[in-house]
Amino acid sequence: MTAKTQLQVEAIRNGTVIDHIPAGQALKILKLFHFLDTHQAITVGFNLPSKAFGHKDLIKIENASLTEDQANQLAIFAPDATVNIIQEFKVVEKRKLCLPERIKHIFSCPNSNCITHADATAESNFQVLNQNGRIRLKCRYCEKVFDKAIVASYK
Ligand SMILES: [Zn+2]
Fold first, then answer.
1. What's the CA-to-centroid distance between 139 and ligand 1, angstroms?
2. Which of 38, 122, 131, 154 sees the fewest Cβ atoms within 10 Å?
3. DSSP labels, 60-83
4. Which range among 14-18, 37-41, 151-155 shows the weakest confidence by mean pLDDT?
């Protein structure tokens, strides 16, 4: 780890740093996970230099931590991200993300004929498919398969 990376990670006292987000994905992640609603101080870095990826985004959230569910969902958008838990300016835990098998509640099905739009008791439920690194989501109800970007942008 370079001295520069160390500084970026250690700039907050307590909280969570999500590092190695693919460049351009940070805003989407902020919105999707409603991090702004937490009213905590949030710092976002765009297009930071990254040895492994060329460029990366980074999100620092003070006094907050990710639940395991959130970390799994994050894995869909940023499979190579690392989640650093910071206490008293120190990284006390580095979590690697792993793709969940299923993702529930978060996204609506983009298929307008899907039963989930008519039946309020049918909660959205997608199977996560990893096809050679390309993440796709399969609706449990209509069994249609969507690219993750389509599902994430559909409201
Ligand atoms: Zn569906």
1. 5
2. 131
3. EEET----HHHHHHHHHH-TT-EE
4. 151-155
